[in-house]
Each structure stands twice: as C-alpha cells, then as structure tokens.
Design goal:
By secondary structure, the protein is mainly beta. 9% of the residues lie in helices and 47% in strands. The chain has one domain. Strands 1, 2, 3, 4, 5, 6, 7, 8, 9, 10 and 11 form an eleven-stranded antiparallel beta sheet that branches. The termini are far apart. It comes from Hymenobacter monticola.
C-alpha cells in the first residue's frame, strides 16, 4: 500500500512538472530598457506590442510613459487582444525603486493628477474600462528606476472594477515591464 501511494505521488509530481509556469510566454523580467512588457488578464496572456505606422501615421510604441515632472511615474502598455486593442496603465507618485499601492478610487478631476496610484485596463472592442479602487487593489513594484537614463523596470498586479458595471471585475497578474523613455 505504501509503495502504491509513493508511486501515485511520484506520477502526480512528474505530471505537474510538465505543465507550463503561469507566466510562461511573458517577456523576461529585465532592467536594461528593452521596452518589453506583459501580464495576464484573467489568465489571458497580454504582451506589449507596438505598430510600425504607415505613410499616414506615426509608429505606436508598445510602452509609453515613464518619469514625469518631479513626483509622478506612469506607464501604458499597448496590447493586441481578441477584444481589440487593450491598454494597461500604471500610475504612481514615484521616482525611486519601491512598492506603491493601488488602493483608492480614482476621481475624475478634469485633467489634474490624482495624489495616489492606480492601475487600469481598457479594451477597444467593445469599449470597457476597469480601474482599481478601495476594494479592488494591487501594487506596482518599481525594481529599477534610473531617472537620468530614463530606464524603469518592475512588476505589478491588481484587481480592477468596470466603471460602468460594478459587478464586473478583472484580475491582472504576473505583470512586468522594462521601459526606456
């Protein structure tokens, strides 16, 4: 009986080893200004992608943002998804490496910058917008912040609620980025 249990446990562990890690397929976590990023949104892989542009339009970068003024950090990742173009946006009052919470409601203040951090996800088809609040929280961890070189890298995770339907929420996990302004 004991050897049967050990054999079953061994088979179960071997089977688990063959599965992909949850963050498999996401860009590696680097700190070189590689302009890469990605995350899982409700388990679906989102990889930051840009466009090369056309004769009539400029290229659209996969990542935009970075250090702004003396107290703000923001980052937007553009991703192509089955739900259209998605933007994952991170915002914090940050200029140095550290952990910054997303835990308050973002009020619309007519162009003024909020005094706290948030994470959001928007989809273009159909248009949907999700944002963190006091109940749907998360964090940004800036693992590298070199304002002079314009390079930032980090990880993030958060839950966000649909601004039009508070019964609809999403979960962003395994987020990472390596950006050069």
């Amino acid at each position: 009986m004991k050897s049967t249990c050990c054999a079953c446990l061994s088979l179960a562990l071997l089977g688990a080893c063959g599965k992909d890690a949850p963050d498999a397929g996401l860009p590696p976590a680097t700190q070189t200004g590689a302009n890469t990023g990605g995350c899982l949104v409700d388990g679906e892989r989102f990889i930051a992608t840009g466009t090369s542009g056309t004769l009539l339009s400029n290229p659209i970068p996969a990542l935009s943002g970075g250090f702004y003024n003396d107290s703000v950090y923001w980052l937007s990742m553009r991703c192509s998804t089955p739900r259209g173009i998605a933007h994952v946006t991170l915002y914090a009052h940050a200029q140095t490496a550290g952990t910054y919470p997303f835990n308050r409601r973002v009020a619309s203040v007519g162009g003024a910058m909020p005094r706290f951090g948030y994470g959001s996800v928007s989809f273009s088809n159909p248009y949907e917008y999700y944002v963190t609040d006091a109940r749907h929280t998360g964090r940004l961890v800036l693992t590298y912040a070199n304002k002079n070189a314009g390079i930032s890298a980090g990880t993030f995770e958060f839950a966000a609620v649909n601004v039009r339907d508070s019964t609809n929420s999403i979960k962003v996990t395994y987020g990472r980025f390596d950006s050069k302004q």
